[in-house]
Write a structure and sequence with these properties.
138 residues, alpha/beta, 6-stranded mixed β-sheet
Amino acid sequence: MTQQFSDSSNELAFDISIDKSADIMSVRVSGLLTKQGVFELLDAIKKVQQRKTNYARLYDLSKVDLDVGVQEFEDILSYARKQFSVPNVEHKVALLATDKFVLQLMAIYKTLSHQYTFHQVEYFSSEDKARHWLSHDF
């Protein structure tokens, strides 16, 4: 199952696909990523997911330009918790990026995410390593 979306500003595009055999949702994002764009992306994921549990999610951010500051992470994490909070369900999220600056921002995002009950967040520069991590319990 694959669905494609664009945000209202047409500066951000994303493709959401679900591999049901691996229980992984892949979200490939391209374009300018803003806080509002993240909110629209999370809304689209919520619509596609349509179930009480959460898929492990792979966010491919290797083709984005970020216009999201560290100070906006808390707003994003609060919104994500509101959208995906399911009692007794663990969230496992892999963030994929190749740009060193984006990877550094993802390290900060990972640290901040723990206080929002997203305990299994990791960032990668290799999709194979990200998928391996998502498909295994450690």
